[in-house]
Structure formats: structure tokens, C-alpha cells
Amino acid sequence: MLYNLFSLVLDTVTGLFAGVLLLRFWMQIVRVRPPQPVAQFTFQLTDWLVKPMRRVIPGVGGFDWASFVGAYLIALLCTAIKVWILLTTLPSAVFLLALISVAQWIIYGWTALLILEVIFSWVNPHAPLAPFVRALNDPLLKPIRQIVPLLGGLDISPMILFLLLQVASKALMYVSGSFGSLLI
To answer: What residues form the membrane-spanning segments (predicted)?
Structure first.
């Protein structure tokens, strides 16, 4: 019981921080400039980790790899703490479990962005954050929109992407189950 509470707090804190690091990485991949409040929050929260890492990990291809590696290191730390407490899996599996955690966080982030875009489209498509969220989702939705036409004027590509993200999440859970499902 106590471990479950500790794990919940640890997963929440590390997941949110790593999520901001991954958002920083994704914003550079998509080449979208965030609104000022989002930029301030993102950079103030992560600069302490990303700036020193940039000295060691250069940006290759125009991507901020220090942000991605930072998210992986956070996942590695979180997973190592849980393995150390439980000792339910081989310590050598920690690196793979951390990579699976990062992949799960990416899926959770994309799912959250997709839900935000759907809410904006229903409530206020002209909200200040709507174009930013739309720009972050566009690389994921564009290939689906090219395959699936509008149905009666309704764009179902977000529903298809949501389903694909859920399938990917379940597949990752299945893979992580072979290494210790208590850790993910």
C-alpha cells in the first residue's frame, strides 16, 4: 500500500517534468513557437537541466536532443528508484524499462494534446492556445487526413489517432509486462 502511494507520487512528479521536457523537444521538431506563457513555463522549468546537458549533447539535425535525453534520464532515475525499492526485476532491465516509460509519456502527451484540440474545436476554436495545440497535432493528424476523407463534413482523424495511440499504449504495457509490470 505504501509503495503504491510512493509510486503514484513519483510517477506523477517525474511524468509531468519529463512531459515538459518532451514538449520542449516536440516543439522544436514541429518548429512551432509557443505562446509566451507556455514558453516561459517550459523554459524556466527545464533550463536548469537542459542548458548544462547541451554542453555534452549537441543539437543534431536542429533538434534539442538534450531535452529528450533529459526526459530519458528522469525515466531512468524513476525506474531505478522503483527497482531499488522492490527488487522485482533485474537491474539490467532498468534501461529498457526507462525507455518504455519515455515512450508511454510521449503517447500520454500526444493524447493530451489531441484531447485539448478536440475541446478547443468544440468550445472555442479561436482561443489563444488553439493554434499552438493545432500546430503540435498537425504532423500526427495530417497523414490520417490524407487517407480518411471527411465524413459528412466531420473530421474523424482525431478519433482514429486516439485509437492508434491507445493501441500503441496497450502494446507498450504488454512489452513492459515481461520486464516487471509493477514498475510501469
So the answer is: 6-26, 105-123, 143-165
